[in-house]
Amino acid sequence: MQFLRKAWYMAGWADEIGEAGLARRIAGRPTFLYRLADGSIAALLDRCPHRFAPLSKGTRDGDRVVCGYHGLAFTPDGHCAHNPFAARIPAGSDIPAFAVAERDGIAWVWGDEPSTADPALIPDFGFIPDTAHSRTVRGYTLMQANYEYGTDNLLDLSHIEFVHKGTFAGQGVIFAGQHSVTVEADTLHSNWWMPDIAPPSVAYGIFPPDAKVDHWLDMRWNAPASMRLYVGVAPHGAPREAGFEVPQAHILTPADEHSTHYFWSTTRFNDLDDAGVDAMLKALFGEAFDLEDKPMIEAAYDNVRGRDFWQEKPLSLGIDQGGTRARRILEKMRAQERATG
């Protein structure tokens, strides 16, 4: 499978990358990320060129990584700097190094040559780091399905009425809503607007049960699969600012063609020092993704594994246009990369 090259992939939460480093397959490439003495992050192909042992199973010599199999040592730019068996460094011993950017508590890895990396293409997730007025709960799960199937799920939030009965419980709000899909430059928006309804579950305890509210689910997508969701509720007819809005991150990184790293976060602005609220949210979202979303996506993908999505003639219900258009945008971007080499 061709993965988009000129794009940033989330490798992990920045605080996952400590002294021991982090080994993670990203877009088909085994990747080892580790911190240098100055605190910055380096990323190398996690494969020694001698007998292909993972460098993540080796040791550190300052900012160098030493292969745990035969002792070749590599600098952060992938240069082989030491051969314990001879003074000469063998030809072909250097390994690929990848451009890394740390922003908003996320470590991003560029999919192409480091010289082409463009930090301006990193999507904004500025709400993730904790502030004096907010706290963010984060999570991760590995999904045994192609990442575009995860994107389909997130850009079509109508599934909450059926998949999330044990957690988010749509209670029919989607059927009272209006769905829209728009594209602005390289950003796709798949939004739901649900006016004049009873308070949804996310607003329990904030609005009286007999109140009438306006509810929105605004999803922003950037290639390859970085999504930001705003979940909001306001008194019916009032400006959005009169209510509240919960920002969430849903970022999918393909490990390979058939598996996906799913990173998520939700930010709150109340009870900031209550660790119990964090634990409750982590349990709720963990249940929603691990026990509801993931099994359904994996089972659906297993039915078409290895087959071309369009040749399977997927039925359109209208509400799935977000995922459809994201797939078409990715196809166009990949085609452009093939055409330009």
Tell me what you see in this structure:
The chain has 341 residues and is α+β, with helices and mostly antiparallel strands. It has two domains: 8-121, Rieske [2Fe-2S] iron-sulphur domain (Rieske Iron-sulfur Protein, 3-layer Sandwich), CATH 2.102.10; 135-340, Alpha-Beta Complex (Naphthalene 1,2-dioxygenase Alpha Subunit, Chain A, domain 1), CATH 3.90.380. The protein has four helices and 18 strands. Strands 12-18-17-16-15-14-13 form a seven-stranded antiparallel β-sheet. It has a four-stranded antiparallel β-sheet with strand order 2-3-4-9, with no helix packed on it. Helix 1 (147-155) runs antiparallel to helix 4 (321-340). The longest helix has 28 residues, at 275-302. The protein is globular and about 80 Å long. The two termini are 16 Å apart.
Keywords:
341 residues; Rieske Iron-sulfur Protein; Naphthalene 1,2-dioxygenase Alpha Subunit, Chain A, domain 1; 2 domains; 7-stranded antiparallel beta sheet; 4-stranded antiparallel beta sheet; 4 helices; 18% helix; 34% strand
| Average of the residue pLDDT scores | 94
**How many DSSP helices?**
4
Low-confidence stretches: none
Structural class: alpha+beta
Distance between the first and last residues' Cα: 16 Å
CATH superfamily name of the largest domain? Answer: Naphthalene 1,2-dioxygenase Alpha Subunit, Chain A, domain 1
Number of domains: 2
Q: Helical content, roughly?
A: 10-25%
Strand/helix succession: EEEEEEEEEEEEHHEEEEEEHH
Q: Can you tell me the overall shape?
A: globular
**Portion in beta strands:** 25-35%
CATH architecture designation of the largest domain: Alpha-Beta Complex
The tally of beta strands, per DSSP, is 18
Rg result: 22 Å
